[in-house]
UniProtKB/TrEMBL annotation:
The lineage of its organism: Bacteria, Bacillati, Bacillota, Bacilli, Lactobacillales. It comes from Streptococcus cristatus. Keywords: Membrane, Transmembrane, Transmembrane helix. This is Uncharacterized protein. The chain crosses the membrane at residues 5-22, 28-46. It comes from the Bacteria.
Length: 60
């Protein structure tokens, strides 16, 4: 397993823990949508950079 992939998973877990903490402390995000917000953020962090990796920014 690559270190960058492992770091992304650790970051994703920290995001879910942070969202749970916000929910418990200030009821920031309703618990009904907390799971979906967490899953969306995890998928976005793990998939989006892979698609952008193949694209090159060129200045014209």
């Amino acid at each position: 397993m690559k270190w960058t992939y492992l770091c992304k998973w650790i970051l994703a877990i920290l995001v879910v823990v942070g969202l749970s903490y916000l929910h418990l402390q200030a009821n920031f995000i309703p618990k009904e949508i907390l799971l979906f917000v967490g899953m969306f953020l995890i998928v976005a962090m793990l998939k989006f950079p892979k698609r952008m990796k193949n694209r090159r920014l060129t200045w014209k």
